[in-house]
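Thread title: Can someone regenerate the structure for this chain?

I was given the following input by a collaborator and told the matching structure tokens would be attached. They weren't. Posting the sequence so someone can regenerate them.
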Amino acid sequence: MGIVIGLDVGGSTTKIVGVLDKTVISHEMVRATDPVASAFGALGKYLDVNKLRISDIERLMITGVGASFPNGDLLGIKTYHVQEFLATGLGGLSLSGVPHAVVVSMGTGTAFVDATDEKVRHIIGSGVGGGTVLGLANCMLKIRDFELLTDLASEGSLQHVDLSIGDISRIEIPGLSMETTASNFGKLTDDATREDIALGIFNLVFQSIGTMAVLAARTVSLKDVVFTGQMTRVKQCRELFQVFSNMYHVHFHVPELAEFATAIGAALYTE
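Best answer:
Regenerated them for you:
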């Protein structure tokens, strides 16, 4: 039995994984704006880095927003298309070990699916996501480099950016700590540094996604939420989501390799 390749062709990045006996053996990521170049580039890089021949690959499972652009079998490898929501759901469950959960895909925008091994159903989506982060960062900080923005945010503080409940009330509200955000960017002052603003942008987006995730979980009567996608690479992701997990008694999971979940789900898919 050969290696099954999962290929997630995104708008700006393409993720590729190799799976053997349902176990991820390696993974790679490439950046390219053209989906065809990105798909072929990722596959070529994966074969080269892992010293593999085309004959070592059993099949290629392709998914993602750019999956419709490459036509036919890539490099002569038998190629199948997998619906993106289905791949995201299966990948999130596999990485987290949770049998039934709301799986959240945080990419340019954000999608929420109700996933089991047998069925994946789209719940709702949002335009708030990584694209929002980059748009706000470009507008407020003149930065469009995601890695630079995360580095800045790691040195920031919300004290000069977000208005907390403690800023507007002397009395603690039942179920909410005094540090709970009352208004994102509601306290922005002239003392706020670029680092503070960068953290504020991430906090705004993660809190918006976290709120929607809680509501999505309650809609389908679930307690487990699995986060996947590029945004999980942000250092502050787990810390910010832990606050929501504790506050609303919902189990938020951010598994290792979460940014490769959709590619992994595609590779694991069998009809």
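The chain has eight helices and twelve strands.
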